[in-house]
Design a protein that fits this description.
By secondary structure, the protein is of the alpha+beta class. It has one domain: Alpha-Beta Plaits, CATH 3.30.70. It has a 4-stranded antiparallel β-sheet.
């Protein structure tokens, strides 16, 4: 197991996804953010089933940066309750994982 993490969140527009991705990298909270456009989400919100076109962000970060990254997502995101799911990276290319660590402060 490593201290590297993948964090998932969704955004309502490509413009917002790009804005959040750039802010996270600029703030050294993420080494890289992949933007996956044009996903469709179905979810329950305030007792109703909703469907929305969204973009998925796949954020590469570290365990230590997690709390600051979550705070930044709350600050930057337009959603009342932004998704923020953190997954542990068990293993991977050692040089890539090292780069994540060097890129995130």
């Amino acid at each position: 197991m490593t201290n590297k993490r993948l964090v998932l969140t969704t955004c309502g527009s490509l413009e917002e996804a790009r804005s959040i991705a750039h802010a996270l990298v600029e703030r050294h909270l993420a080494a890289c953010v992949n933007i996956v456009p044009q996903i469709e989400s179905a979810y329950r919100w305030q007792g109703e089933i909703e469907t929305a076109a969204e973009c998925l962000l796949v954020i590469k970060t570290t365990e230590e940066a997690g709390p600051r990254l979550r705070a930044a997502l709350s600050e930057l995101h337009s959603y009342e309750l932004p998704e923020c799911i953190e997954l542990t990276i068990e293993d991977g290319n050692a040089a890539y994982l090292e780069w994540i660590g060097e890129s995130v402060r």
